[in-house]
Amino acid sequence: MRDSLSLLNANLSESTIGNLYLQHTPNWAIKFNPGSGSVISLTTQESFIMQTTLIIFKPDAVQRGLMGQLLARFEAKGLQVVGGKFMQVPEAVAKQHYAEHDGKPFFPNLINFITSTPVMVLAIRGREAVTVCRKLIGSTDGAAADPGTIRGDFGNSKAMNLVHGSDSPESAERELKIWFGDGELADYDRTIQSWLDE
Ligand code: RTP
Ligand code: MG
Question: How far is 103 from 35, CA to CA, in rounded Å?
Answer without folding.
Answer: 53
